[in-house]
Amino acid sequence: MKKRFIVQFVAIFVLLSVLVAPVFTGYAKGDTQDSQSEASSEVTEISWDNRNTIHACVSVGVIRGEGGLIEDEYWLRNTTRAQGLLIGLRLRGLEDSARFYKGTYSFNDMPGLNKAYWSPILAYAYEHPELGLVTDVKSGFRPSEVLTGNEFAKIIMEALGYKQGVDFESADVRSFAQSKGLTVKEGKVTNQDFTVVLQQALKLNNKEGKLFIEDLYQKGALYDRREVKAAPGTDPAIPYAARMRLFYYEGGWLQLHASDQYGQRILPPKGTFSSSDTSKIVLGDQRPGVIATTDVSVDAYGVTSGINTAVVTFKSDDGKWNLSTEVTVVGKSDVNVFTDIRYEQDYQALMVGKTMKLRKFSLIDSLGNFVNLSFHQYYLEVRRADDNDPYGTGDSAVFEIGRQEINEHYTYITAKKAGTETLKIVACKGGMPGSGNPNYIEAVKEFTLTAVNDTDIVGCKVDFLYDKNFMYAGELSEDHNLKIKVSGATVNRMIVQIQSTDEVALPDAFSYKVDVDNIAVSTEKSEIVTVRPVTKDMEAKIKVIGKRGYVIGVFPFHLKVDAPKVHYLYMSAFNKDYVYIYAYDQYGKSIAVPEGTITSSDPDKIAITGTREGYNPYDLCYNISSVGDGPNTATITYVTDDGLFKAEVTVTR
Known about the structure:
The protein is mainly β. The chain folds into 5 domains: 27-219, no CATH class; 243-330, Immunoglobulin-like (Sandwich), CATH 2.60.40; 340-452, Sandwich (Immunoglobulin-like); 462-560, Immunoglobulin-like; 566-652, Sandwich (Immunoglobulin-like). The radius of gyration is 30 Å and the shape is globular.
């Protein structure tokens, strides 16, 4: 039987309130959307720095689009020679001439390309050999092939005004480009690689000695969205705030964004925030924003119990910026929104050289209740008790507090040397730690942490994911590998974190063995895997062996032959716009949701309007919408066709 859902057709006007993210994961398609069919990459993720670089390249128009979205997968793919050619034309101000060229490209070497789009571009490059973009006029350009680092370096060098055969030879293009400040990758180039090189190129002087990005702005080759330009007499290459925006978000906080002349995020200039009506809206001091190193936030507080409205203005100290936005806060703001921090400390010690990421903390109010604030509505960091060296950069510090990659908050704790220190978690709103603003809110949680050397670890502990010490081993199933986590123990029974939080592999302080040949330990993935299916249930043991070759721990678990089957369903509502249905088997692993029917308890209030793609192919996802004025409440229920499983969630929107 097909999966069924009850649909009501309603006219809905939806206002999407979108939080402006520091960088984007999708961009408009265009330059290269049809030039990727033969190209692939082994790279599996995009670093946070590269996301900023991608955003900057799109912002200034060195990478452009024609509609649609390009997701992460696009940036991870290899770059084609066609893409490199188009970028080369753009950097010379010749893109329009090429795209509307009337000539013909006669070579049959465009597999996987949109020929209508690329033919005039390739024909233009072919008919203008003086550009150096098509060097082999007898065999064509091979536009679908993957671009190499050397080829892209040549394109950039010639866009900067240098000529092969005059300034450099083909054999030494790598060393020549590197001498000018470019990174030249060995072998194939990915789309995120070329954004890094493009940003480097924009910051160089061309052969004539002029800053390349300034030259491109003057030629109209890039989007010149600068609202402020470099002051006369200053070096135009030094990053400065060229564009700024002030946003207000529901919940009482403002965010100040700035980008430089290269399109990259930059810390806004110093300045002052003010409220036009302090009898309605008062402000806290400035604090770090979504990205602590580039954004500035200010918290706004309502003064009266009614609707509080005022205009908040930012004026930079240098007089170049004057930005304003209207702010509305309903009701008087609670200045005691949180008073304490609850922290679950999993480890009493950290091995020297390893890094612990702060986790499992919650904000608590004066009544002991959890406070549900998004991370952008307050600032949080870890500090040492020594206020003269709060982040442990000095030689005497046992721990150094570093910034995490995504939001740049100080929440990474690295053990530098053996010893014990008192650390504190500080959560604040309305300013930075220690602010004297009357609206400043702060909560502090102190805890003790010890750093130990690997020689101090005499025991260990093995934890099984979700406390399930059993696994399906009736067949080879990667989905049913048993995830494990290993920690150490000292002679005085302190539990020690012996691998950094973000490390995937098992700690190399130990080695690992199992006592049956049906399974093996994958140290790279921290998993126990089936290598030969079992025919009956059986017990197995994993042995942990210390540095000196002695077994320091033996931990039993069970191998099961029962085939995976649905054990329970779970439903949740996301952003009140859709519901998600999950199914799990008896081993705690995801399994396909059985066919069934979804209904709304009151379709005149909350209607189910269709399906949508989920994050996991095993799951189901349904859109929901309000009918008429809200708030509306209904219970969404999913029942499997066999009647064995039911999941529901109550939604108000």
